[in-house]
Amino acid sequence: MLSRNECRVQETTTFLEDMRPVNVATVSTRCVQYLNIQFTNTMRPYGHPILPSLFCIYAVLTGSILSAQNTPDRRLSCSMLVFEDLHYVNFSTSFSCPSYAFRCKYGACIDRNFKCDGKRDCIDGSDENLPECKGHVTTGSGSNCPSDHFKCKSGECIDSTSTCDGTKECKDGSDETHDLCKQNKCPSFLFKCKYGACVTKDSKCNGVKNCADGSDEDQCHTVTTVVTPIHKPSQTRPPTHPSTHPPSYPPSNKPTPAPLPPIKNKKCTVPNAEGSVYTYSNNNQTLLSPGTKVNQYDFILENCKANYYQAGPARVRGCMDNEVWTPVFTDILCLKMCSPMMSDSLNLLCTFNGDITSCSKPSQPGTKLKPSCKPTHSLPNAQDETPIELTCQQDGQWSGQLYKCVPDCGRLFINSMPLISNGNLTRYGEAPWNTGVYRANTNNSFDLICGASLISPNLAVSAAHCFWQDGQTEKIIENKGLYKVAVGKFTRGIDIKDNEFTQIVDVERIHIESKYYGSSGFHAEDIAVIVLPIKVTISIAVSPVCVDWKVRYSEQNGATGLIVGWGKTENAVLSSKLLQAKLPYIDHMTCRNMYTNGFELFVTSDKFCAGSKIGQGVHEGDSGAGLTFVHSNLYYLAGVVSVKDPNTNDSIAVFTDVGQHVSWLRNIYLNYSNDNISRTIKLLH
After folding, report:
1. What whole-number distance in Å separates Cα of residue 286 and Cα of residue 645?
2. Exposure string for 183-199, b = 16+ CB within 10 A, e = fewer
């Protein structure tokens, strides 16, 4: 029967060059139930704190391969005294031992240096029964006792961990004396003999003298036959190889204590820790749901779910006798990660421990985030930007929220060069609000039909007649693949991406002024707003023009405004490159009085003119383009190209006055410039 079980981690500073793995086959759970362990050290298999006993039990129960490399001192000894017939351990007799090892008769491999050292390292003692072992002496002076051994008064050298354990190993019993053991402190799970030795708690009153003085059988009311063990079996190192044939051993004359009590089928419950996932430690393919019952002596491995930060290595814990997980972890392994941070108006800088990381991915706790307005943006109402820093906290929340910057309107981010009749070539960035409007043709392509001016990342202002057809009554046109717009463009063709800032976007819908009726209404109210389904990316080549929402500015005759477009040149051909021109302003009355041939009817009350009798001007193909004027160093949209007298050869054109449509524009702007840009049309009227 089982008399005593031990599992120890031996402390040593000498490492073997080639640490041999140990494979222990099957074991009776009845035996393991009584593995009342003496904990002599703490080890960290796989980088996790775990008691040595648990690791040994795990190896025995699962048949897993133990490697001394998994222990802090790289040397592991799991020694167990088990049922006398030892039938539950099988070692392969067909497996050869390496050159540095000695092969026991029953097949196990031990270090060759362990032969004839006075200790039975083979369970059958075949390492000490060799002819060369005759005359081997275990006694000697203190100088020839290893540093980790105890020198008996009678001269023998015994393992220092074999003192004060209840069994006399020295011939004179000097390893189990009151003087030696009186200061010994026993853990709560062990029984302390009167003279100070520590034995297993179930040794008390079990009918066997486990204390050298027999104090574990004192004051026992049950009448049993008390037997004192004659000899304490030597500790054995785990065999190197598995086997299939049990060894044979001489019969034991040791009396049999009372039978072992029945084993209760104990289980532990898989924890429910946020972010953690559990698997069996020897099978990480099967996930264990929280609340799953796991058998006693099974081990589970804890890792983290995706988007959780793992604060340390994966952790192993075992289900022990008291139906609780051992070891107990009080810290949290899996921490919530903070959500990705992105902004179309802010530059975001994320760092962790001083290293730059991506803000657009989940951030681990401790990450610092510093936002700042992009060069093309600023805080609303010209506020000064105060530097702030956000921190990703342990609960997976950022310590604050990002603020929003608004695109700077009417700014030029590239220096102009002296540059559509008699117009000059322009470059991208010199009118970053300019937008090309394209319509599908019968060749499965798109033609440029008009210009427009970006007033927000998802709104552009153009002329209503660009989208009007005779007999039409709808003032809100849902686009069905007919129209596209392009921003950041320099060349005319939609299939050419001019630069890294060029963006081609579908149109979601078009709003036409409610009082526009085409030529039958003399093109009065000739203004439209193009709604995009997404916000374009603001850059040095793409940014909105300002709108004078409070109608604070007015133009004087002769003031020059800037216009760009791909209209016809003085040679009556459509320009393939974006052109710009500067046109003088002509107020409504002056413009109307210039015409007496009936064209004055088209100079409706919401119109003004721009251009001159000679020089630069706008022509066919420039419809919808915006005329801008500078106020306070910013460009403001003042007019939209509407019509031109076809019977004159000058460059003067009629523009829809944006200032007279501010209220209508504001309603659309407020409904579409928020984060939710897909609001229903019902909100607009």
Report:
1. 80
2. eeebeeebbbbebbbbb
What size, in residues, is the chain?
A: 685
Alpha-carbon gap, residue 460 to 505, rounded angstroms: 12
Q: What is the DSSP string of 355-393?
A: EEE-TTS-B-TT-EEEEEE-TTEE-GGGPPPPP--EEB-
Distance CA 30, CA 262 (A): 8
pLDDT tens digits along 471-484: 888 999 999 899 99
Structure tokens at 480: 């069905």
Q: For residues 56 and 19, what is the distance between their CA atoms, to the nearest angstrom? A: 17
Tokens for 10? 């031996």
Q: Give strand ranges (E) for 549-605.
A: 560-565, 579-586
The CATH 2.40.10.10 portion of the chain extends over 424-672
Task: Answer for the pair 19, 68: CB distance below 8 angstroms, yes or no.
Answer: yes
Burial 419-433 (b: 16+ CB within 10 A, else e): bbbebeebbbbbbbb
585's CB contacts (< 8 A; 6+ apart) are: 555, 556, 557, 558, 559, 560, 561, 608, 610, 629, 638
Q: What is the pLDDT of residues 54-83, one digit of tens each?
A: 333 333 333 332 333 333 332 333 333 222
The whole-angstrom separation of Cα 129 and Cα 151 is 24
- Which of 20-29, 313-322, 371-380, 482-491 has the lowest average pLDDT? 20-29
Strand runs labelled E in 281-433: 283-288, 293-295, 299-304, 308-310, 315-319, 325-326, 334-336, 346-352, 355-357, 368-373, 377-378, 390-391, 406-407, 424-425
CA neighbor of 75 nearest in space, from 20, 149, 119: 20
Three-class SS of residue 483?
strand
- Give the type of residue at 196: G
How far is residue 173's CA from residue 232's CA, in Å, rounded to a whole number?
12
Amino acid at 606: D
- Most confident range, picked from 27-41, 65-79, 114-128, 152-166: 152-166
Superfamily the domain 424-672 falls into: Trypsin-like serine proteases (2.40.10.10)
What are the φ/ψ torsions at residue 406 (nearest 5 degrees)? -110, 145
Q: Which CATH class is domain 267-334?
A: mainly beta
* Domain boundaries for CATH 2.10.70 within the chain: 267-334
Handedness of CA 298, 302, 303, 304 (dihedral sign): positive
216 φ, ψ to 5°? -75, -10
The CA–CA distances, whole Å, from 370 to 297, 390, 406, 627, 660 equal: 50, 6, 18, 39, 43
**Concatenated DSSP letters of 210-226:** -STT-GGGTT--S----
74 phi-psi bin (left φ>0, alpha ψ -120 to 50, beta other):
left
Instruction: Name the one residue in this structure whose structure tokens are 């950022």.
Output: 398
Structure tokens at 268: 């532990």
Contacts of 125 (CB under 8 A, 6+ apart): none
Mean pLDDT value of segment 240-257 = 46
pLDDT tens readout for residues 503-553: 999 999 999 999 999 999 999 999 999 999 999 999 888 999 999 999 999
CB environment 440-472: b (16+ within 10 A), e (fewer): eeeeeebebbbbbbbbbbbbbbbbbbbbbeeee
pLDDT at position 261 is: 52
pLDDT digits (tens, 9 = 90+) for 354-410: 999 999 999 999 999 999 999 889 998 778 888 899 999 988 999 999 999 988 899
If one counts every other C-beta atom within 10 angstroms of the C-beta of residue 81, the result is: 18
